[in-house]
Amino acid sequence: MSYIIEPLAKLTGHLASLPGIGGKTAQRLAYHIITMAPAEAQSLAGSIVEAVDSVRYCAVCGNLTDQEVCSICSDATRDHSILCVVKDARDIMAMERARVFRGVYHVLGGTISPMDGIGPDDLRIKELLSRLPEVNEVVLATNPDVEGEATAIYLGRLIKPLGVKVSRIAHGVPVGGDLEYTDDMTLLKSFEGRRDM
Amino acid sequence: MSYIIEPLAKLTGHLASLPGIGGKTAQRLAYHIITMAPAEAQSLAGSIVEAVDSVRYCAVCGNLTDQEVCSICSDATRDHSILCVVKDARDIMAMERARVFRGVYHVLGGTISPMDGIGPDDLRIKELLSRLPEVNEVVLATNPDVEGEATAIYLGRLIKPLGVKVSRIAHGVPVGGDLEYTDDMTLLKSFEGRRDM
Fold this sequence. Notes:
Two copies of one chain form a homodimer.
Chain A: H1 6-16, H2 23-34, H3 38-54, E1 56-57, E2 64-65, E3 79-86, H4 89-98, E4 103-107, H5 125-131, E5 137-140, H6 146-159, E6 165-168, H7 184-192
Parallel strand pairs in A: 3-4, 3-5, 5-6
Antiparallel strand pairs in A: 1-2
């Protein structure tokens, strides 16, 4: 006879299906959860349902929000003439945390990746083009990997002829990084992008 | 203006309060959860509430169960004359997985630890003593750390005069372990516990 506590096994299974949570971690979490105060566990469960129900995509930029239009797009103090194009909403979170950008964003929802069958039509490029008439500059902030670069080059060629300034975020040795341990491609980028002092 | 999505921040906060889940992991999980199908998220939330509501302690051994008496204690095919004393219910899970023991268990609910203010009266020792009349042997399977050893010694002194056989699980070099990297205390235990071949 195998020894299984049904509700515990079910909870463990659910937790183990989350990304980055393995079987052991799921079991540890499940044991923690069943020793929680019922009110606390209900609050955790409630926050899951509430988040799934209320968080949606911003109708303007595609960012995550619990409103119709996200707090960035509806913020009149931000510069709506400069648009930062990112792969997904998590990138916005990172940039907002760093407080490096005061314009508005546009989420592509992915990057061009023929290997995964993702072409330009699968991204929010049509929506991006429709925003261009009100924009002076587009900053392409896709990741510095193959797909991100390809997407940036594609968007650059698409947008430039429309008379809008297009720029790409700088790649190079990260602050606090060590030249000795920096990969070749990053070193190459840091030389290509060198500036007069 | 800081940029926060209230339901997402609440969910992230809840997840980050779980053991071993840091801020970054909580955020990653929260992002995954909000992209789940609503039914799937509801199922996850439901399993949390269900587990907290239905899982309780076995009235006999203190193991976790969704019944009045756990499936091990109510299993007539097991040997009820040999009792394995463990620190908590997770230890039972490990032993059952390894299929090394066919008797029944007793969960102490902790180990004696004066530093943390946990004395014998805080453990389920009274309940253990009340089970002894039906038992031939007690195997002490607390962890081989300071508190576990102290608890084992305490229980041994308490139970032996009652005429019940008391044993302690063996400590030594783990199977697949390497002598070179084994700590001194484990090596000492493995010599103390050596057996004729």
